[in-house]
Structure formats: C-alpha cells, structure tokens
Amino acid sequence: MKTTALLSAAALAFASSTAVFAEDSSDPIVIPIHNWSSQIVMSNVVGQILEANGNNVEYVTTDSQAVYESIRLGDVTLELEVWEGAFGASFRAALEKGGIVDAGDHDAVTREDWWYPMWTKESCPGLPSWEALNDCAEVFATAETGDKGRYLDGPVDWLKHGKERVEALGMNFTVINAGSAAALWAEIGAAEADKKPVVVFNWTPNFAEAVWPGEFVEFPEWVDGCDKDPAVGPNPDALYDCGNPATGYLKKAAWDGMEGKWPSAYKVLTNISFTNPQIAEMAKLVDVDEMEPEEAAEAWLEANPDVWKSWLSSGS
Ligand code: TMO
C-alpha cells in the first residue's frame, strides 16, 4: 500500500513538473458536415486546426439531428455548432442517454426564427409582432398558398416545427419547407427587385444580415419546456406555441471517449470559441464570395492566425 502511494505521488510530481501528456491516437477524428455554410466552413477550419495539432481527421456528411446519436455511440467524434433553437432538444436527449459531453460554449449568441427583409414592413407596418404578421397574412399569399400567407421554413432536418407553431397559434399561414439553405436565399433575392414582402426562416450569425437588413418576427417569448409541455406557452393545449430562444447558445459537443483517446485534440476543442462576426464571415466566404468550403477555411485560418494559434498553445 505504502509503496503504491509513494509511486503514484512520484508519478504525479513528474507529470506536473514536466508536462508530459498521453499521446493522441492516430485514428482519424470524425467531423460531421451538415447543410448550412458556417457549419461546413467551421468544420473545415477546425479540421485544419486539428491537423496543425498533429491529428488525423475525416469528414462525414450527416443529418443534423441524428448526429447526436452518432456522437453518443462514438461513430462521430464531435459537433461544432449545436444551435440551441434547432438542436437543443436532440442534444439534451442524447446527454440524458449518456455517451456525449458538453464541450463548452462559443462566444456567439444565436437566434433562429421567422424573419423578413426590412422592405416587408412597408406592406405590414405592425411588424415585428406575430399578431400583426398574422393580420397581414394575405400580403404573403401566393398561387401556391391560396388566401393564406406563405412562410418558407428551413429544410426538414432542422426541425423548426413551423407547421406546429402555425396550428398552435391559429395562424393564417401555410408552411413550406425549403429544400436547402440556398432556396431561402433565392426566395429573398427574388423578392428584392420588386420589394415583395416575404417571410422566411433565417438565423444569426449568418452572412444574410450584412446583405439584407431585416428583423425576426416577435413570437411569444421562448420558455423552457415549450417543446415538451403543452401547458407552457400561451396555448395551454399545444406544444411549439413560443418563438425560439432570442439569445440562444452555440455549443460544442463531443463523444465522451474523445478526451481519453485524443487528449490534446479534446483540449483544443474546449479552447475553441468563435464570435458572431467570425461565424458570419465564415458563411459569407461561401454564400457571397462563392469559395469552396475547404478554401474558405484556408482563407479564414490565414487571415486569423492570432485567433486560432492561441487555442493550440494554451492546450498545454
Ligand atoms: C441550424 N441553423 C443555423 C441552420 O438554424
């Protein structure tokens, strides 16, 4: 007993005085790629940072909700953009089951919700209130939606629950799911010339805020449980009768085996924290400047060495 205690005390003293760390596995760290630009660019940025850290990385394209189950099982190693509004529920469910860890928050504050370009207010001056929007529903009507207003929601895997919200709040809108993020930008772009009023799903941080000034529709304020307990929110019998969080988090998540298998990379992951302007810029490099995600990541890393090199050095 005594010898063991002495030995481990000596080992501890050695480790802390010489900063010797276990080496990271040479197995690839699996980074998931989804269907919006900041996440794709950020994943490439972090992949290249981890390569600079000496790690091997591999990218896989995955569904943005199912990824939390894949991380829990260790098939995917991490997630760089856990948006509270879109993925909070799937992330919380995976945390409860076990196998996934919260690897910390980005500096960024996020919002995802119904949004309109500013010119829309000329046709519906009561905005941003959702009740005013509903009173103007016919202004947003199209051949496709008849006398109801058209709301273009995000692709189905973002699970925005637009249809449930319309039902829960008794709104005069038809919800259409866009096939891709690009379809959202095309809708706004097509409306711009004639200043046609439109309401679409959008989020911040994003490139769009620099291109089209606009505002989020103000729905009943988000309250925890609004997606779980019908009693929460203004309609006592329905879920999703609240807006998304107006000051949501943006988290990183990791497989709970990552720290043991790649301790140095895990430390880098916990150090990483992007701001709203940095994330908007990542999206812009692809959506406005039309770069490929990999070259966008290279450009970002080259322009911001002071930001990311400190994440490497403070890792030891
Ligand atoms: C998850 N997203 C940023 C597209 O709303």
UniProtKB/TrEMBL annotation:
Asked whether the keyword Signal is assigned, the reply is yes
Q: Where is the signal peptide?
A: 1-22
Q: Does the keyword Signal apply?
A: yes
The domain of life for this entry's organism is: Bacteria
An example Gene Ontology molecular-function term = transmembrane transporter activity
Give the UniProt keywords, A-Z: Signal
| ABC-type glycine betaine transport system substrate-binding domain span | 27-302
Any one cellular-component term (Gene Ontology): ATP-binding cassette (ABC) transporter complex
Q: Matching InterPro entries, A to Z? A: ABC_Gly_betaine_transp_sub-bd (IPR007210)
Would you tell me the protein name for this molecule? Glycine betaine/carnitine transport binding protein GbuC
Whichever gene encodes this chain, its name is gbuC_1
